[in-house]
Predict the 3D structure of the following.
Amino acid sequence: MTAADQIQQLLSHKPGLKAQQIANELGLDRPQVVTLLHGQLGADVVQDSAYRWWPKTKGSRTSPFAAPPPRTFLATLCRYYLECLSRESGSGISIPAADGAGYVVLDELPFAHQGAEPWGIDRAIKKIVRKARQERG
C-alpha cells in the first residue's frame, strides 16, 4: 500500500486531522505528507481554514468544509474594529491613542445613511476605509 493510499484510508476513518497528525499516525515525514495532500491527493481531499484535512464527499464537487464566501466590506470593517479592540484590551503591545494612522473613532456606522458618505472629508477615515477595502484576507 502506497503512502497516498495510507493517507486516504486514515482520513476516511479519522477525518479532520492536520498534516502533522497524519504523519505521526502513519510514521511518515510531514513534508512528504503535505506534498501528497497538495499533489497526488488534491482531488480527493480538502483542507479547511483550521488546516485540517477531510475527504471530499462523493457525488458533489464542493465540500461542506470548503472556504467560506468572501467577506463583505461591512464584515471586513467590523473585523478591523474588533482587531483594534483586542489590541487595546490585551496585555501586549498596543497602538497608542494618538496614532491617527492606526485607527479612527467613528460616531456612527459608515452605512447608516444610504448613498451618502457620513465621513465627509476626513482624510483619516477615508484612509482606513481604503485600507479595509484593499485587505485581502
Remarks:
- The chain is about 40% helix and 5% strand.
- Residues 73-89 form the longest helix (17 residues).
- The CA atoms of residues 4 and 99 lie 52 Å apart.
- The chain has two domains: 3-55, 73-134.
